[in-house]
Each structure stands twice: as structure tokens, then as C-alpha cells.
Design brief:
single chain; 4-stranded antiparallel beta sheet
Length: 88
């Protein structure tokens, strides 16, 4: 029953694999990118700042790791679900 509920609200039990992809939670403007490819980061480190709906949102690392790809550029806009940063 828990499995059905988690899938219904958009979570899946295999979500750890997807934690490498940092996607935009909403459309917005990239105010700053605080990391570069190859950089080591710790869980909770701020990766970038996304402005959406007149609010600044700090996007943090979901786990310890390193930055594989930085797709976000300062001053560019992103759509919801767009890949911004990939970790490994």
C-alpha cells in the first residue's frame, strides 16, 4: 500500500538513482552558479541560486559527491524539470 501511495504523489522507491540529476523545481532565472565541473561538494552545499516568483531559492546538493556537468548558466532561464546540474 505504501508503494502505491508514494507513486501516486510522485515519488518512487528507486529515487536514489535520480538524485544525481538536479532539475529545476519550477521555471525561473539562474542568479548564480556556485560550482564548477569536477568540484567536490557535500550534502547541503548550495549549488546555485534560482529566482522564481520574485523569490531566491538556494538549490542544495542532495548528497556528497562531485559535479559531473553544469548545464545552468548565470543569467539564463530554466523551465520546470530542466536539468541544471548533474552529480556523480
Amino acid at each position: 500500500q505504501i508503494n502505491v501511495l508514494t507513486k501516486k504523489i510522485g515519488f518512487s522507491t528507486g529515487a536514489t538513482k535520480k538524485m544525481n540529476d538536479i532539475k529545476a523545481p519550477m521555471p525561473g532565472l539562474i542568479l548564480s552558479v556556485n560550482v564548477k565541473e569536477g568540484q567536490k561538494v557535500n550534502e547541503g552545499d548550495t549549488l546555485l541560486i534560482l529566482e522564481a516568483m520574485k523569490m531566491e531559492n538556494a538549490i542544495s546538493a542532495p548528497k556528497d559527491g562531485s559535479i559531473k556537468l553544469v548545464n545552468a548558466k548565470k543569467g539564463s532561464t530554466v523551465e520546470k524539470g530542466e536539468l541544471m546540474i548533474e552529480m556523480e
